[in-house]
Write a structure and sequence with these properties.
Largest sheet: 5 strands, antiparallel
Number of helices: 12
CATH class of the largest domain: Alpha Beta
Oligomer: single chain
CATH superfamily of the largest domain: DD-peptidase/beta-lactamase superfamily
Number of domains: 2
CATH topology of the largest domain: Beta-lactamase
Radius of gyration: 21 Å
């Protein structure tokens, strides 16, 4: 398996390097970053508190290692559960937390994960569980996991230190963080490792040098050591090139600056878990196309289901969405970034629209053709973008 990787500027979202960045891969335990993202979101809205109890169900207790191994009926606090995911990567606790937030159903919570991924612009991602345990339907990409990592930093900086916590002590047991890069590379402070036999060795990481933060994702490493070495090399090269550019040097940040020899990749088969072969939940997808390899729940397109009457497309009434954020300020900031990256396609004033607990950044006044061209231009710069018809 050849690895996939991206390096992204955390402030602007600019992609500095991409190798098979949109290739479908198994995220393994990096999945837990999204589980934690939704947990942070529930904390911010008051749905749960850090002291609330998370109870271990029979299904949670039956999960494969890595796990805490608590018996059925035992419980731990939300704060302890978050640490168990970020540091220990405990699969049993991921399921228990998913059941708490998903009204008793991990499957429902996985649907919530996928929909939030769509809102964030993770167009190649589909979740079916909260842990990242093997399932051939659970896929993502290096680019999507970088988008998720950036969203955690941007939306919940108060919780980000969880990912740099060196150890977690629970009931007298001390468990060390799996991310060895925390000790190997100064300035690295997160995020999450992952491994299954089909995924290879995965790592989403972030680090700071001076006033610049980079995010990098490596998927499919052949070993823990070689994955860490590749990650360190990518981050160091990214920092060096960015610093030279900041000094005024004419530096073309290109793949050749990092390495060479691209090649396609084919997904390996994974054992599929069919422990929940019930009728799929019906989830309304409101702002993005359905992900690839769908199964396990039904995505309902409002335009074709009668949930919303789609009007006839009209010239100049199409729009594009370039992100969903936790605050109006962040949504407006994204609008300014987009206008700077692709001014020819985003000359109009962007607007921040409230949607539940999120703020969406949208630009209007397009025809269908110009909207698709705008999104194509923006995606080429590593930014999320979705085309919206007049009825959206």
């Amino acid at each position: 398996m050849r690895y996939a990787a991206v390096v992204v500027d955390a402030e602007t979202g600019e992609v500095l390097f991409s190798r098979r960045g949109d290739s479908l891969r198994y995220p393994a335990s990096i999945t837990k970053v999204m589980t934690l993202y939704l947990t942070f979101e529930a904390l911010s809205t008051g749905r749960i508190s850090l002291e609330d109890r998370v109870v271990i169900s029979a299904r949670a207790a039956a999960q494969s290692p890595t796990k805490l191994g608590l018996p059925v009926g035992a419980s731990l606090s939300v704060s302890e559960a978050m640490q168990a995911l970020a540091v220990k990567s405990a699969n049993d606790i991921a399921v228990a937390l998913a059941e708490k937030l998903g009204e008793g159903s991990e499957r429902r919570f996985a649907a919530m994960m996928t929909l939030r991924a769509r809102e964030l612009g993770m167009v190649n991602t589909h979740f079916v569980n909260a842990s990242g345990l093997p399932d051939s339907r659970q896929v993502s990409s290096a680019r999507d996991l970088a988008i998720l990592s950036r969203a955690v930093l941007r939306d919940f900086p108060q919780h980000y230190s969880l990912f740099s916590q060196p150890s977690f002590t629970f009931q007298g047991r001390k468990m060390n963080n799996h991310n060895g890069l925390l000790w190997r590379m100064p300035g690295t402070d997160g995020l999450k490792t992952g491994f299954t036999s089909a995924s290879g060795y995965n790592l989403a990481a972030s680090g700071v040098q001076g006033n610049r933060r980079l995010i990098a994702v490596v998927l499919g490493g052949p070993s823990n050591a070689r994955r860490n070495a590749k990650m360190e090399s990518l981050l160091l090269t990214g920092f060096d090139l960015a610093a030279r550019r900041d000094r005024g040097e004419r530096v073309q940040i290109a793949q050749a600056s990092f390495e060479s020899e691209p090649a396609p990749v084919t997904l390996m088969a994974q054992v599929r878990s069919d422990t929940e072969a019930l009728a799929p939940d019906r989830v309304v997808l409101t702002s993005a196309p359905a992900p690839r390899n769908l199964s396990g729940f039904e995505i309902v397109d409002p335009a074709s289901s009668g949930l919303r009457q789609a009007g006839r497309p009209e010239s100049g009434r199409w729009s594009v969405q370039v992100g969903a954020f936790k605050s109006q300020e962040l949504a407006r900031k994204q609008a300014a970034i987009v206008q700077k990256l692709a001014p020819a396609h985003f000359s109009a004033q962007g607007r921040a629209e409230r949607a539940g607990t999120s703020w969406r950044t949208r630009f209007a006044g397009y025809t269908e053709t110009s909207a698709r061209a705008a999104c194509k231009a923006l995606k080429s710069r590593g930014q999320p973008c979705m085309v919206l018809p007049p009825a959206a």
